[in-house]
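User: Can you help me understand a structure? I only have the sequence.
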Amino acid sequence: MTIEAKTLEATIDIAAAPEQVWPLVADLPGMASRSPQVVRSFQRGDGDVGTTTLNINRSGWKVWPTRSKVIRADAPREFAFRVKDNKTIWSYSLEALPDGGTRVTHRRAAPDGLAPVSARLQDLMMGGLERFDEELLSGMNATLRTIKADAER
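Assistant: Let's start by predicting it. Here is the structure, written out as tokens:
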């Protein structure tokens, strides 16, 4: 049994070429400095498809691990990984803009539904699926703002 989860999406325009933005979105260990939820990521592999990570996440006093695997790495267009623990797919799509900048879309999808144990934990520990989705979306926007600031330096 799986639980339906809505797709979350955030977008930002960055005044830097996709080739400059790509290293920031594809740097999983570096996400600890860009995402308000990621504390640390331990990467095994070179960042291409098949690379795995062990991630430590935090929300307030709650800390939990997740495991992920890179499923798409099409530089400088798309980077995606699947979180094994809850079956979600997190991705970044980069679109070149006519002015030389990049539109970055950050997405969380659950095409196969959310793992029941993850849904139950979100309900018990995170204030419910809807509230946690709001927190995730807020974090996605914060991550994009940090990527933008880093890319535009």
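Now, to help you interpret it: Residues 129-151 form the longest helix (23 residues). The helical segments are 18-25, 116-125, 129-151. Let me know which part you'd like to focus on.
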